[in-house]
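#struct-help
A.M.: can someone run this one for me? Single chain, 377 residues.
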Amino acid sequence: MKKILLIAIAIGAAIALWIILGSIKYFQIQAAIAGFANMPMQVESVTSQIAAEEDWVPALRAIGSTAAVQGVTVSTDQPGIVTKINFESGQTVKQGDLLVQLDVTQEEAQLRSSFAQQKLTALTLQRQQNLIKNRVAAQSELDTAQAEFDQATARVLEVKAMVDKKTIRAPFSGVLGIRGVNLGQYLQSGAAIAPLQALDPIYVNFYLPQHNLGRIIAGQAVSVKVDGLSDVNFEGKINAVDAVVDEATRNVRIQATLTNLRGLLRPGMFVNVQVPEDTKSRHVVLPATSIQFAPYGDTVYIIEDMTDPRGVAYRGVRQQIVKVGESRGDRVAIVSGVKPGEEVCTSGVFKLRQGSAVQVNNSILPENNEAPNPEDT
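D.P.: on it. Structure tokens below:
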């Protein structure tokens, strides 16, 4: 019995100890909760903007490349030795300007011989015509003289064509590229002389998804920007929409023609193309820094007057899901979710949550430029 009594006393003491320790921990937790409840709310510093509607012209955007309206590599048709080069690399030339002259010494000698033969056959033909008038010669002799004259004339034309083929001229007006021949060089038939590109006007080829076909027509205006020439806006019009859609990408090729008076655009350049639409709409427009992009939904924080659990009023934020539209530079159109007149946090949103207290400090505002020009750091 004595042993059982000792065990019961030990168990009772252990239970009493657990109750005492549990009570102490409970009161500690309650004190911590009360301390947190009385702790002042942390205030985050943010910038803000009053939401306002703006006229927004929707536009289709794409990446494209430039191509010459006319572009060839000038080459030789006949082999020969270069005796004259009449251009420099990068020179602007007009249609018909002499570029390269190959050696035509032999052809010129043949041409003089052909002219002499033509002159002789012309005299013979004239005599036969006079004899026929006087009924002295036969018709067959006149026919033979006529045939010999025609053959001599054809030979003259043949040699002239040979000389022309060795006299290489610009087929159209444009800008020449890097020269590929030297004086005295022997050129094979088809040897490249220099590339020739017509730069004004110039084509821009780009692709848009097939669902945009109904929004594109020939004659529609386009605007083009080029990296490195951000201060220049090239204007033009769509001249053709391809008749087929690419089966691999389901995109359609579109070609626009741009004016290029200063020759700043060159074939093969990477460009950003914008196709403005005729319709206008009004949207709230915010800086991109005000939006938290997430797979489950894009959100912004609206600044409002709020009351904490103790009934104290403060300036806090409400997280609002929004539907974003087209973006241009630093600016994003809000299709729905933000009403005009609401105050929206424009920076510092990454440290906020629903109900956070905020203090607005607009001494330094985020960029809000439709055509930003970032500094190279």
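A.M.: thanks! The helical segments are 2-38, 105-133, 139-165.
D.P.: also worth noting: The chain is about 25% helix and 40% strand.
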